[in-house]
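[job 0417] fold request received: Cytochrome c-551
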Amino acid sequence: MKKQLMAMLFGATLLLGACGGGDETTEPEEAPADNGGEETASIDAEQVVQQNCISCHGENLEGAGDFPALNDVGSRLSQDEIRSIIENGQGAMPANIIEGDEADAVAEYLANMK
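[job 0417] inference complete; emitting structure tokens
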């Protein structure tokens, strides 16, 4: 009885080990090609804003409490000014809440909100 139980456990372990774990043979991602400043085109800036900004600035970016409205921020600030605020923070907003290409894409997206 003990041998059968051990054999069954060993067999189950082998079976689960062979089936589990997912695809680990994926090739490494290629570095993005330099396309003359078009790297922000593949980033969904609206989704990044939804994930990072609405908790403070309101669901429709209309502002909430001490947090300013972003739904018309492009009429008040340039893309560079918006990028600077994302990078350096301002007021209660921490610095670098969004970084890199995502920050560039969000700054462009918000600058177009007028």
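[job 0417] notes: The chain has a mean pLDDT of 82. The two ends are 76 Å apart (CA to CA).
[job 0417] exit 0
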